[in-house]
Amino acid sequence: MTGLNKISIQVGEFEFESEGSQIEVDEKFARFKEEGFWNIITERLEEAKDMTIDSSNSTSQEKSISDRGMKFRTLIENCSLEGKPDQVLGALHFLRDVEGLEDCPPRVINALFEQANVEPPGNLSLYINRLCDKEFLAIPKQHGDKNRYAELTEAGRKHLENKANN
After folding, report:
1. Using one digit for the tens of pLDDT, what is the confidence trace for 37-50?
2. Residue 6 forms beta bridges with which residues?
3. What are the boundaries of each domain within the chain?
4. What sign for the dihedral angle of Cα 103, 104, 106, 110?
5. 92: nearest Cα among 65, 130, 66
6. CA-CA distances (angstroms) from residue 127 to 56, 87, 107, 117?
7. Would the pTM of this model clear 0.85, i.e. be above it?
8. Where are the alpha helices (DSSP H) in the chain?
9. Is 22 exposed, middle or buried (CB count within 10 Å of its CB: 0-12, 13-18, 19+)?
10. What is the pLDDT of residues 48-96, one digit of tens each?
11. In terms of CB atoms within 10 Å, which end of the chain has fewer, N or C?
12. How many CB atoms sit inside 10 A of residue 126's CB?
């Protein structure tokens, strides 16, 4: 063993390198710290760590919500659809007009809510019937009274547009 010590640190454009006896290396490192570079390096490392954690949290949250769920959640947020009736109306708009589905059974609507990490409405028939009473939804005659074929009426579209513009 020669008694030679070496330390090398590089963070971004900041670099510290010292070689020599333990005392020489310690003295150079102490001067480096006194000049404030060590504080800058530790701040940069802390910022990089925080950014990595934030990015990781954001990525894991996005992965837990499917692309379809993110689109529906964005619709809910952008249109300020806070109540379940408005959210059900938004879901039917999304499924029928955006995705082009004709048949929207309860399991499909509930799955959309779940994919968006939004509490599903529960009794969909109740909401759909109320939305029909308000004339926001209509069920084409050829489908009888099957709620799974409910379509937005012009009044329902206007209601969503008004929510989006407020």
Report:
1. 778 778 877 887 77
2. 19
3. 5-64, 67-165
4. positive
5. 130
6. 38, 10, 15, 19
7. no
8. 22-34, 37-64, 67-78, 84-93, 106-115, 124-133, 154-165
9. exposed
10. 777 877 766 555 555 556 889 999 999 999 888 999 999 999 999 999 9
11. N
12. 14
The CATH class of the 67-165 domain is: mainly alpha
Q: Which residues, 6 or more positions from 125, have their beta carbon under 8 angstroms from its beta carbon?
A: 106, 147
Q: Half-sphere exposure of 52 toward its Cβ, with a 13 Å CA cutoff? A: 6
Q: What percent of the chain has pLDDT over 70?
A: 92
Q: How far apart are CA 162 and CA 80, in angstroms?
A: 10
Amino acid at 120: P
